[in-house]
């Protein structure tokens, strides 16, 4: 029992580290002057190459048990491509705060979808945490949030959140059967193939800053962060992982303040505090489970 609790606590720690790195991606993406689909494609091509190299060097078996798992991994990869493209689109048409805040709505989708997919009982604490997280999102949004590009940013962010919720459900099944590196390689390899045409057809020019940013996105914010996140889901439910991931909003806003000089408003601070509090409580509860 103690060993199991220690393993769960480590999974929660890995989950939180992964979310910190995910939050950095929103800011790093702003340094790349390219369409969102090109940024997402460059990111996933870089990360897939790193994961493939590590798998070959460590002689990791990449064989999946059956065609059903292969189909699920390919499907998850396509969803991953959609998630990252829509996320960067939300950041580009609005702001880091708007994109990360609206993306944080994905635990709401998980609260409904996870019990349906896995035929589990809908937990009251999960519902309450999701409602509290939604309240944090609503507090953070400015009163005139539908003006300018805010409405488009919110729409893209919500779509990104829905895609992430679906991806989390797929990862829960795959991560219980295969090593995290294998799951990530299949998903990111599929996403890389799907987005490769967009990267090749783009007629813009890569700058040194843009190339370095793509490298950081691919290696640190993707290959490393995604592997940690998938591995953590071996012992943490998708609902708990989803609520903890709400901290990505807080990290993204803090990174934007430090690296971009985007100071958060009072409403963003209030909503971010609520989101952080809910995520912290969910981390403690998941660690005791």
TrEMBL record:
Segments passing through the bilayer: 12-32, 38-58, 70-91, 97-117, 124-143, 149-170, 182-202, 208-231, 243-263, 269-287
Location of the EamA domain: 15-140, 153-281
Record keywords, A-Z: Cell membrane, Membrane, Transmembrane, Transmembrane helix
Cellular component GO terms held in the UniProt record: plasma membrane
SUPFAM superfamilies: Multidrug resistance efflux transporter EmrE
Membrane-protein topology: Multi-pass membrane protein
Subcellular location field: Cell membrane
Recorded family membership: Belongs to the EamA transporter family.
Name assigned to this protein: Drug/metabolite transporter (DMT)-like permease
Organism: Allofournierella massiliensis
């Amino acid at each position: 029992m103690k060993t199991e609790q220690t393993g769960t606590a480590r999974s929660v720690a890995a989950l939180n580290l992964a979310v910190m790195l995910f939050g950095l991606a929103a800011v790093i993406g702003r340094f790349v002057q390219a369409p969102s689909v090109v940024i997402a494609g460059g990111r996933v091509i870089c990360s897939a190459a790193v994961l493939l190299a590590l798998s070959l060097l460590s002689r990791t078996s990449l064989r999946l048990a059956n065609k059903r798992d292969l189909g699920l991994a390919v499907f998850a990869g396509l969803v991953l491509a959609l998630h990252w493209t829509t996320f960067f689109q939300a950041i580009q048409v609005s702001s880091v705060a708007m994109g990360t805040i609206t993306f944080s709505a994905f635990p709401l989708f998980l609260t409904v979808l996870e019990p349906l997919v896995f035929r589990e009982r809908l937990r009251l604490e999960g519902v309450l945490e999701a409602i509290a997280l939604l309240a944090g999102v609503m507090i953070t949004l400015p009163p005139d949030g539908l003006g300018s590009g805010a409405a488009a940013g919110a729409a893209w962010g919500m779509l990104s959140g829905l895609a992430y919720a679906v991806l989390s459900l797929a990862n829960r099944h795959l991560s219980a059967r295969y090593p995290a590196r294998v799951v990530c390689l299949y998903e990111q390899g599929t996403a890389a193939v799907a987005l490769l045409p967009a990267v090749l057809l783009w007629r813009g020019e890569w700058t040194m800053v843009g190339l370095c940013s793509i490298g950081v996105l691919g290696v640190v914010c993707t290959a490393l962060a995604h592997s940690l996140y998938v591995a953590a889901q071996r012992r943490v439910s998708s609902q708990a992982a989803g609520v903890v991931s709400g901290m990505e909003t807080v990290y993204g806003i803090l990174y934007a303040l430090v690296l971009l000089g985007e100071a958060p408003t009072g409403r963003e601070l209030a909503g971010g505090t609520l989101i952080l509090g809910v995520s912290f409580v969910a981390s403690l509860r998941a660690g005791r489970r």
